[in-house]
Backbone:
């Protein structure tokens, strides 16, 4: 017996289709039913590759007693946060206000008449444990509270909605005379501190912070940090750590330790796109560590082999868990990726195993539940012996050599994973939906790496994905966020617009002769401005003006999380568009956007590194006009606030023109002169 979610397009929602809970998707009918029956709404938000979401689905959401009580006393709604990041953002903020922390699964209780939350939590066990109450007791206590404590309920909700509205408006009476350059310095120092190695806690890529930290190194700020060293170390942690899949490429989500050793094994497209772009940027600064190039190349091969649809777009994610055998009831975390010592002894020669132990964290006892996650001990080039050993492990995992495996078909659900006759291990489930924002991050990473390493394949993959989005993601003239098996759906949100425009501009930057990318970026920007620009407050709303009716507050994304904030990216895009088109309306909007978020940039620079990246673009934007040959020589260099325009109409005797906003410098008479002008232009303290 299945519930309403059996017909959902979302893999995450379909995973709950056989729960005894009478789940609804988020829709007008569900909200109206809750109001008509005066039932509080139990809203549960998660995503398909979320480990604890999967655990709760198999425990509390599959429990008959819990389901009976839930179905009688609540209106249960399931939401895929990857489909509705706007809902997730609002209610995650409410969870953080109530509990001081966030995470998924996000389980929150709403009043049906106004959708304002009154209680929230993350994972709830069936029975009391881990210091958490049992889920049935929570449901019973909250239903009693809802029925009998109306005055307290209203007061509680009033405080929550007031906090949400205040946060959305960002009104702040404080003013400061800090100049932009000093503001940038403080933000750079903060971001560099955020990514400085720590001795405790999980290790996340934190790429919006690394991006700001890296671009700030060109200013030579006085600081307690060695910015170049900190940025290099973050690159080494990523490329050498267990967070990277040294056998088959691709980066896992994060590691559960401060040593970058044992990952949480899901692979998310958005992480991989950002990390590829960052490592390529590091290389372009002159830090040409072989491990960076190997990690990028391996990630692109993984992307091409396992994460690219026949139509050219990229899949969303791969789960952390996988089945060890087809008869297993539950998948195991990391099973597809880790190695027992006895396996390694069987697969490798004595020489290969000895060298693997010398260069990687391999021991008889292992470092993850008796098995081994591979983490490199040293930087530099891997030997031929080690590359042969890793190729043997690839063969053992996939059942075929990496050279002959052009495409590895995805397991689209647990049933496919268990019933397909895989030649090697049973793979993790792949969520094959297309998300515009995440594809855009990968396109940007590929475009950057293509320019830095002069790799046509990288540009080809990026262009195919961008063309798919451009040709397939419009319904009735409006841009759409998702695509399920060829069908676009869900109106695009601010991150989709902002990141796709950035991706198009990045493609333009890597191939300036092809003006079609710029033309497409202008067209998307026009729609973005029309439907999401906040005339009252400045900046871009998360959702369009004609699709916000079911939201209790209309937010503007300014804080960076695992992905950069939409407004930080959008404002930087506006500066780039102004340079490339000479249309100063874009620059006006960029100025208004920075003004809209000025208070939070002063108050909480740790929250919004992407806004400071945008400020860097605004202050130090540089247009380089030159010939195709000269610009092609500049593309691999680290020029974080420069855009290129190819022209043959240069003053006689010059090699290029450098323009700063509304003025141009004297024509550069030599390549050295041009580079000197560009360097000074990008550091206009």
Residues:
């Amino acid at each position: 017996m299945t519930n309403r979610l059996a017909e959902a397009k979302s893999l995450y929602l379909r995973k709950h289709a056989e729960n005894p809970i009478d789940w609804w998707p988020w829709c007008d009918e569900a909200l109206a039913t809750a109001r008509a029956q005066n039932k509080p709404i139990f809203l549960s938000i998660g995503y398909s590759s979320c480990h604890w979401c999967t655990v709760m689905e198999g425990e509390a959401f599959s429990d008959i007693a819990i389901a009976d009580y839930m179905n009688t006393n609540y209106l249960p709604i399931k939401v895929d946060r990857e489909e509705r990041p706007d809902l997730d953002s609002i209610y995650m903020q409410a969870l953080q206000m109530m509990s001081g922390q966030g995470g998924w699964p996000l389980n929150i209780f709403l009043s049906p008449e106004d959708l304002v939350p009154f209680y929230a939590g993350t994972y709830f066990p069936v029975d009391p444990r881990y210091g958490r109450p049992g889920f049935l007791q929570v449901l019973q206590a909250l239903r009693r509270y809802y029925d009998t404590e109306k005055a307290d309920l209203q007061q509680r909700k009033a405080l929550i909605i007031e906090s949400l509205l205040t946060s959305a408006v960002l009104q702040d009476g404080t003013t400061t005379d800090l100049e932009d350059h000093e503001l940038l310095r403080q933000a750079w120092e903060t971001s560099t501190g955020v990514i400085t190695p720590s001795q405790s806690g999980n290790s996340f890529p934190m790429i919006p912070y690394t991006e700001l930290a890296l671009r700030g190194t060109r200013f030579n700020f006085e600081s307690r940090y060695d910015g170049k060293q900190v940025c290099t170390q973050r690159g080494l942690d990523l490329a050498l750590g267990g967070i990277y899949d040294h056998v088959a490429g691709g980066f896992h989500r994060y590691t559960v330790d401060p040593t970058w050793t044992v990952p949480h094994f899901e692979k998310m497209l958005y992480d991989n796109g950002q990390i590829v772009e960052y490592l390529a940027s590091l290389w372009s600064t002159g830090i040409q560590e072989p491990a960076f190039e190997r990690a990028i190349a391996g990630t692109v091969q993984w992307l091409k082999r396992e994460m690219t649809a026949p139509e050219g777009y990229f899949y969303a994610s791969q789960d952390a868990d996988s089945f060890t055998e087809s008869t297993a009831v539950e998948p195991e975390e990391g099973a597809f990726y880790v190695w027992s010592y006895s396996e390694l002894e069987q697969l490798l020669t004595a020489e290969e195993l000895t060298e693997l132990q010398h260069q990687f964290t391999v021991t008889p006892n292992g470092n993850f539940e008796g098995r081994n996650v591979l983490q490199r001990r040293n930087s530099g080039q891997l030997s031929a012996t080690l590359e042969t050993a890793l190729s043997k492990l690839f063969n053992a995992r996939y059942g075929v050599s990496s050279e002959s495996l052009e495409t590895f078909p995805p397991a689209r659900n647990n049933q496919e994973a268990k019933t397909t006759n895989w030649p090697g291990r049973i793979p993790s489930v792949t969520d094959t939906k297309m998300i515009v924002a995440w594809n855009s991050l990968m396109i940007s990473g590929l475009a950057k790496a293509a320019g830095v390493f002069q790799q046509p394949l990288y540009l080809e993959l990026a262009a195919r994905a961008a063309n798919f989005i451009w040709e397939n993601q419009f319904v009735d003239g409006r841009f759409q966020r998702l695509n399920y098996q060829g069908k676009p759906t869900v109106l695009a949100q601010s991150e989709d617009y902002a990141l796709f425009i950035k991706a198009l501009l990045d493609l333009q930057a890597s191939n300036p002769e092809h003006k079609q990318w710029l033309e497409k970026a202008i067209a998307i920007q026009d729609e973005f401005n029309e439907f999401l620009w906040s005339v009252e407050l400045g900046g871009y709303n998360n959702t369009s003006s004609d699709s916000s009716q079911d939201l209790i507050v209309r937010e503007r994304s300014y804080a960076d999380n695992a992905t950069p904030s939409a407004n930080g990216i959008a404002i930087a895009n506006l500066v780039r568009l102004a340079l490339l088109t000479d249309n100063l309306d874009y620059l006006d909007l960029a100025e208004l956007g920075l003004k809209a978020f000025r208070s939070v940039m002063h108050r909480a620079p740790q929250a919004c590194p992407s806004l400071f990246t945008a400020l860097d673009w605004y202050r130090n934007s540089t247009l380089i006009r030159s010939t195709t040959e000269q610009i092609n020589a500049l593309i691999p260099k680290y020029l974080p606030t420069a855009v290129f325009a190819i022209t043959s109409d240069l003053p006689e005797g010059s090699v290029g023109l450098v323009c700063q906003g509304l003025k141009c410098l004297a024509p550069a008479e030599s390549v050295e002169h041009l580079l000197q002008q560009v360097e000074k232009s990008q550091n206009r303290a």
